[in-house]
Design a protein that fits this description.
This protein has 359 residues and is of the alpha/beta class. It is 41% helix and 16% strand.
Length: 359
């Protein structure tokens, strides 16, 4: 299979794209790939490390605050459209895939205009503007949440789940002792993303000492940017602080409760690994989509939510105690997560692509 794939801007788009590439390679080892990403976002550094041919285009999202900047955005879209047409003609793929981010706009649009098969995938419960635009030009659409189906033309939309979930299940569980943790105690994992937020850091610095003498342990993954500031504080012996974990799913497999944001890829791993969670959606994302992602789980009694505006040390510690000390609550959450799980998401997407290529 010859595949052009595009995704960019955040890991929430890039890692699902890489999971799809990995699955195609597994099924068809002689497959060829071309990845089209932005010239200045994280995919330009991540993708080449996987030895995947990479081409960049200069493209920007629309700016709602400064309308004048959108003249440059439109100009770059036209220029990118022309470059994408040239790249697609040269590569001559069997299918062109968009996995989110504004970079996919000119890629999928030009592919469809040239008559190539196109597939897009939406990770969030509320689609981004680019995918809504591209839904007219995609032959097939995959979504991570069942509630997203109604937001696209239903006749060509399928609930596939998030391809990162299949990867999470296959990951080997990490040894807790590597992080100074006790195998005999329950683990609460706190991870707020690479950037986190100053408000959440302030709250957690005040909250972590309150976990002293609890019958469980805390592992707080601060993010590299916040680690130096946070490690200066003194915390109880059962609270461990680290800057980063490469392959978070490895420690998630040993986690009894996770406190985290509500990004689509994180939720796909929580669902796949059936981990009870307290979700604190980032209020700083487009259209408050993390809150909507979280509510897809909360409404099915498959997670708990505390909004950042409402959180404090007292209610966070109380909620942790309530969940982790109740087998009944944890088991009910795990059972409800099972109903949301698509354990073979990447495989499901591969089968869709294979069928498209046959046609």
């Amino acid at each position: 299979m010859k595949v052009i794939i595009s995704a960019g801007g955040t890991g929430g788009h890039i890692y699902p794209a890489l999971a799809i590439i990995k699955k195609i390679k597994q099924k068809e080892p002689n497959s060829e790939f071309l990845y089209i990403g932005t010239h200045n976002r994280m995919e330009k550094d991540i993708v080449p490390k996987y030895n995947i041919p990479f081409e960049s285009i200069e493209i920007y999202g629309f700016n709602r605050k400064n309308i004048l900047k959108n003249f440059k955005t439109v100009k770059c879209f036209i220029k990118s459209y022309k470059k994408c047409r040239k790249l697609i003609k040269q590569f001559n793929p069997d299918v062109v895939i968009g996995i989110g981010g504004y970079v996919t706009g000119p890629v999928i649009y030009s592919a469809k205009k040239l008559g190539y098969k196109t597939f897009i995938h939406e990770q969030n419960s509320v689609p981004g503007k680019t995918n809504l635009f591209l839904s007219k030009y995609a032959d097939k659409i995959g979504v991570s949440f069942p509630s997203s189906i109604k937001r696209f033309p239903e006749y060509k939309t399928e609930f596939t789940g998030n391809p990162c979930s299949e990867e999470a299940v296959k990951v080997v569980a990490y040894d807790k002792k590597k992080y100074g943790l006790n195998d005999q105690k329950k683990l609460v994992l706190i991870v707020m993303g690479s950037l986190g937020s100053s408000k959440m850091n302030d709250i957690l610095i005040k909250t972590l000492p309150l976990f002293k003498n609890k019958n469980y342990e805390i592992l707080y993954v601060t993010g590299k940017e916040n680690y130096e500031q946070i490690k200066e504080n003194k915390f109880p012996f059962n609270v461990k602080i680290i800057p980063y974990i490469d392959g978070l799913a490895g420690i998630m497999k040993k986690t009894d409760l996770i406190i985290t944001r509500a990004g689509a890829s994180t939720l796909s791993e929580i669902i796949a690994l059936k981990i009870p969670s307290i979700l604190i959606p980032s209020p700083y994302v487009a259209e408050n989509h993390q809150y909507k992602n979280a509510m897809d789980l909360v409404n099915k009694n498959a997670a708990f939510i505390i909004e950042e505006a409402d959180i404090n040390s007292k209610n966070l510690v109380e909620k942790v105690d309530e969940i982790i000390n109740s087998d009944e609550i944890c088991n009910e959450i795990k059972d409800n997560l099972k109903t949301l799980n698509v354990s073979n998401s990447a495989s499901k997407i591969y089968e869709i692509l294979k069928e498209m290529v046959k046609e």
